[in-house]
């Protein structure tokens, strides 16, 4: 499935590190999330772009031919929700593991 350039969507250069991609993803999610008044289509593009660039194999494949072959091309929305859910689950697990009070944190900083 051909998609828009994931580097452009996240606003990172082709040689961006995983840390830079993660930072750009978090900023874009915060900016474009529909619950914050953002555009759902753009939010979904952000999530798909991050799925490509945060996975070494998918990123390499995209860099080689500019194509992202998604096994289920009609599942963009569910992939987006899965990605957001994993972000929150990982954040909450890290806070709980460190005995942090969740009420004191904004997970979308």
From TrEMBL:
Pfam assignment, any one: DnaJ
Residue ranges constituting the J domain according to the UniProt record: 5-66
PANTHER family attached to this UniProt entry: CO-CHAPERONE PROTEIN DJLA
Protein name: J domain-containing protein
